[in-house]
Amino acid sequence: MALLNKHTVFFGACLLASTLVSCGNGDEEVSTNMINIVPGNNVDLSELPQIAFADTAFNFGRIAEGEKVKHTFEFTNNGNAPLLISRVEPSCGCTIAKDWSTAPYQPGESGVITIEFDSDKRPGHQKKTIDIITNAVPAVRRVYLEGDVAGPQTEH
After folding, report:
1. 78 pLDDT exceeds 60?
2. Coil, strand or helix: which one is 27?
């Protein structure tokens, strides 16, 4: 029975892989080998995408506990290949990412990632990190959201 399960899992994985490889259409198709590029002797870094942020940190100042803060991080693909953002990972559940596209950003094209921080039950100094995982080198870029949350026991 265990052997049958291994074969079933293997067959399912092969079917999924072939489906993913065959999806897409002509001009918009981006090869999956553009994700997780590891620089080495055969990789010309000048031919890769390059994500450049207008700013990598935003200080929201002082807010009252329970308020939500939004900030939009703007970026441009300054490289020579399509840029893919595979994930945006905030450091905590109180922070969410919005408005970013999983579609390729062509060389010279700009985009945005909006971050929203919910200060509910989070008094004190806050510094949230958001990791942006791409096919650029380095693969992970980090942006920051920081400020102070005045709780019910502190002055505003």
Report:
1. yes
2. helix
Work out the end-to-end distance of the chain between its first and last CA atoms, rounded to an integer number of angstroms.
Answer: 65
> Is the predicted pLDDT of residue 1 greater than 70, yes or no?
no
Among 33, 12, 79, smallest CA distance to 52 is for: 79
Long-range contacts of 98-106 (CB under 8 A, 24+ apart): 99/72, 103/28, 104/28, 104/30, 105/49, 105/77, 106/77, 106/82
Range of the structural domain that residue 127 is part of: 13-17+26-150
* Cβ neighbourhood burial of 6 (10 Å; 0-12, 13-18, 19+): exposed
Rounded to 10 degrees, the C-alpha dihedral 119/76/47/40 comes to -20
User: Is residue 138 domain-resident?
Assistant: yes
Tell me if residue 134 falls in helix, strand or coil.
strand
In a domain, 129, yes or no: yes
User: What is the band of 7 on the pLDDT scale with cuts at 50, 70, 90?
Assistant: very low
Instruction: Quote the tokens at residue 121.
Output: 């039950």
